[in-house]
Every structure is written in C-alpha cells, then in structure tokens.
Amino acid sequence: MRVIVTGAAGFAGYSLTRELLKQGHEVYAILRPDSSHNDRFYDVQGDLHLVELDCADFDKIADKILCQCDVFYHLAWFGGRDDFEGQNANIDYTIKAVEAAANAGCKRFVGIGSQAEYGVCDGLITEDLMPRPINAYGAAKVAALYLTKRRAEQLGLEWIWGRIFSLYGDYEPAGRMLPDVLGKMKVDQPVSLSSCEQNWDYLHVVDAARAIAALGTKGHAGEIYNIAHGQYAPLSQFIDRAKKELGSYSEVKFGDRANPFISLQPDVSKIKNHTGWTPEISFEDGIEAFVNNRYFYED
C-alpha cells in the first residue's frame, strides 16, 4: 500500500511513519522545510520518500509525489492553545490536505484530532459526546473535523477521525509535564505538581502509531475514534508508578486542584472492536525506555 503522512517528523508522526514502514508500506513523508526534526529519518530503512513542503503549500502534494496513493494520514498541526491566527490557519491547511488526498488518488483520509475537542467532561468519554472545547486549539480541531468530513464527502473520499489523548514516549517534546517530572526524578530533584486528583490516561506514542495505522486499513468510514490506553487512573497514581519504576528519592509535593479541572476517562471499546487494535507497551516499560533514551523503533 502507498500512503502519505503529513507532520511525519513530529512526535506522533515519526512513530506512525516508522510503523507504516515496518508494515511494508511505501510512505511519502511530508516534512516541514529545514526542520531539525527531519534528521530523524537520516538512516531509516524502508520504502520511504521525504518531501519537504510547507503547510500552506499542501495543495502541491500531488504534484510532488506524481503517483497514485491509497491512504492519507494528516497529523501536521501548529500553534499554541489560544493562538487564534495559527489555529485558524490549521483549519485551512487541513482542508487542503483532504483535497490533496483526492488529487493524489487516495481512497481514504485519516485526520487526527485531540481530546481537547471534548473540553471538560464528567464521566466516561465516548465518541458520541457533544464537543465543548475550552480553547482555540480544541475549537479548531472540531471545526476541521466537520469541514473535512463534508469536503471528503464531496470528493468521494472515505473519511475517518482519530482523537488522541495523552501520549508519551519516543521524541516527546520538552516542556511537557511528564518529561519534566521524569527528568527531575531521574536525578532525585523535588517535584511540585497540582493535586493530581484528575483521572488521566497515558498511551505510548508507538501504540498510538499502531492505532492510527489500523484506522487507515480497518477503521469504518465516517467514524470518530478515541485513541487512548483505556486504563485511566488518578494522575497521582501515574506519578507514583513512575517514581517507583525509576527508584527515585525525589520528594513529590501535590498542591492545589488544577483549574480548569480536566479529567480524562476515555472509552476505547470502539477502536478495539472495529480494528482489533490493543495497546502493548506498559506504562512502566515506556518510562524505562524514555529515561534511558531507548527508542522502540531503533534500527
């Protein structure tokens, strides 16, 4: 199968690209021009084609590839949580991606959204909940969902949307909560956090890549899927498990309740039932690999 991946050098995009190559697919990886992350593919083996193209030029993807493809995976996305200008531009880029998929002969478009589309939820999060985003990022993802679904219908494309929850693991960007905590625990520095009462759900990025790849072949057209581990627990328990795994002597101080209080209890029965996917990497194994700079797709 011949596939296209935008955002291919990003956190989730890199693992997805490696997973698709592992499965024997021919991959056209769309990369941001001159990004240092593009070096991640320096010695990657497989039927891989690197295409540097800015998001604003996604309408030129078919011209760059010059062949018929089967599935288009769209992961490229930029901007801060309330960067209104940037988030609005992402909507336009995502519509261009759908049109590029059609121009490249793809039969299926897989768009990647976020748990931020749900906003503040109480109880189990199923895909049929009404989106109530609380920031520009989540709102832009929701807008992109509805607009790309309609555009795909017009162009005769099968459309699928995956909503990613909390990923960790290979090439996770600095500045996020878990890498910061792990870095301090590794050297026994004190850690200060919120109350960590909220439920959380951590999924290793390699398991997420397998889930996204499965949507491209086995997901049902027109459906939205949660992409998460499915074993949620209070965030404080994940912190305790990480500390135990590392054998850390860090003092952990839990403070005030987070505001807004985002508690994640994702239901993943739908993606499991439709594709047969199930997570394979335990939280402890993922933590051990991350702190020791071991990547699951090392050659």
Number of helices: 9
The top-level CATH class of one domain is Alpha Beta
Quick one: overall form?
A: globular
Number of strands: 13
What portion of the residues fall into strands of 2 or more residues?
Answer: 15-25%
Describe the main β-sheet briefly.
Answer: 7 strands, parallel
Please state the CA-atom Rg, rounded to the nearest Å: 19 Å
Distance between the termini: 22 Å
Structural key phrases:
299 residues, alpha/beta, Rossmann fold, two-stranded parallel ribbon, 13 strands, globular
Summarize the structure.
By secondary structure, this protein is of the alpha/beta class. The chain has helices at about 10-20, 60-65, 85-105, 135-155, 175-185, 205-220, 235-245, 270-275, 285-290; strands spanning about 1-5, 25-30, 50, 70-75, 110-115, 160-165, 165-170, 190-195, 200, 200-205, 225, 235, 250-255.
